[in-house]
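Problem 12. The chain below contains 293 residues. Write out its predicted structure in token notation.
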Amino acid sequence: MKAAFLTDRGVIIVSGEDARSFLNGLVTTDVTLVRPGLGRFGALLTPQGKITADFLITEASSGHGNGFLIDVPRPLAKGLADKLGFYKLRAKVRIENLSDSLGVVAVWDGEPSMKPELSFRDPRHETLGWRIHVPEELKQSVADVVGADLVDEEAYEAHRILTGVPRGGLDFMYSDAFPHEANMDRLHGVDFDKGCYVGQEVVSRMQHRGTARTRAVRVTLEDFSPETGVAVLAGDKPVGTMGSTAGGHGIALLRTDRVADALDAGLKLSAGGLAIRLTDPNDVRTPPKQTVV
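Solution.
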């Protein structure tokens, strides 16, 4: 079992008597289901339905001051806190950026021998393991307690890529991608039954009409790794953009209909002059039904 402190993650806390209802009316996931030890995946969207920030959220226990801890990309933490403050109006909530004092340890490839406080299973994919909120100086102690080897965060990044879970800023761009394009509907990040939230109308329409044509898709690299951001070609026609890579695996943002047609026509995929192929061709065909766990 491995553990890594993720220096690219920050933590925001939203507390106060209105915190749960306040967040639930804004974000894509059902915050009424969040409890201490239980996390959800979600996002705050623009009114046009595009991702401002995606995050994992859990509830702190009374011993840690209650409130909801939001595990978010650290470069987005201040902006997300400010944006939530913009929506605050008269709601009885407090919003604080804790990123300088509290971070995130990821634990994977096994079951922790004990579950520390402020820990929860990553709800996006079963292989992603657990998340633990902890100050960076305690990362070794936490790894020892859960029975994991502390490794560099690059090892977790390679595991994320192998799992096929997109990362904002690499595999899709914030303020430019819809939740479906970042596979949030497949990663339990959108609750289509919870009611209104910012951008809900656009996302629901895409879901019911099946209009999502761009997806983050797992690819296997035939040789060297293409650079992030280069065009993916089917034959000589662009069908998407290369995202993050590690070892022989990567993620690409692709027009699934065009790639499916290219595969049917026997065309090969490439990026930056390097051959790539889909890890699973079914990723660009009929999507599985969305579920929320």
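Discussion. Confidence is low (pLDDT under 50) at residues 288-293. Students who got a different answer should revisit the alignment rule from Section 12.3.
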